[in-house]
Amino acid sequence: MTGKLIFTTTALALCAHQATANCDTVRMAEPGWTDLALTTGVASVVLEGLGYTTESYVLGIPVIYESMVGGDLDVFLGYWDPAMESYFQAYREAGDIETVHQNLEGAKFTFAVPKYVYDAGVTDFADLATHADKFGRQMYGIEPGSNDIMLGIVEADAFGLSGWKVVESSEQGMLAQVKRNARGEEWIVFLGWAPHPMNTSFDIEYLTGGDNHYGPNFGGATVHTQVRKGYLEECPNVGKLLTQMTFDVPMESAGMAYILDDGNDPKEAGARLLKEQPQYLEAWLDGVEAKDGGNGLDAVRAHLGE
Hints:
Protein name: Putative ABC-transporter substrate-binding protein
Shape: globular
Pfam families: OpuAC
InterPro entries: ABC_choline_sub-bd, ABC_Gly_betaine_transp_sub-bd
Radius of gyration: 20 Å
CATH topology of the largest domain: D-Maltodextrin-Binding Protein, domain 2
GO molecular function, one term: transmembrane transporter activity
Keywords: Signal
Order of helices and strands: HEHEHEHEHHEHEHEHEHHEHHHHHH
Largest sheet: 7 strands, mixed
CATH architecture of the largest domain: 3-Layer(aba) Sandwich
Strand content: 15-25%
Low-confidence stretches: 1-20
Number of strands: 9
């Protein structure tokens, strides 16, 4: 595996000498979410097939953005709009980070509950406080730094949820808790989203009422590719790939299951997905060259063993 995993700003700072890295190495990051781990893994496989070196870092969203501004990272494939607006607004206004492509539509991101909780009458954010004791006055999020909306709801006493605890752990930790609770039909409210295998692994429902916090249509979102300022001009061949690499919900859900259910690492899952669904490559690689100037599509196919 060529990619590296760096978890702290201190460790990332060790790479500061690469701040003016040339186009031979593409430095990406994702916040530890399986969907973004997958898409970063897929991009890594394609880029390495083209002859580039890739580095992949797992960092909190604020650290990702600061690292892009500082020139230590090149690419982020995971700007969820509008869920990440509060993180990105200042960088948009400053013009330090460029949003260059919408790589997914049809995503959603908001509170979810098991269907047995939904059927018992919890169908809206406003229903939670009425059943506070059954929930233990707890809601489950993911990694620290990724739950600001949930924390803000509690802090603002929206829906009468003041005093509730936001349990922060990780995506995997949250879903393990959902699984434990579901076994005994114990009540739980958690952060749910699509694409994700949770939508088929568990019988869940999304709550209405969160439009002012997560956006309409159950936090209906698009996901975008972002780069550090000037990157597309510096590295136009990689940039062409990035502006053509578009995913879809079924594809991502399938690849995420390879990670979560089969234990593949993101690049293994990405390679497996592309071998099983190679039809995406033609559009992604239209007009994209290999680093040595050869045909990009042929190079990636050869890398995948086709």
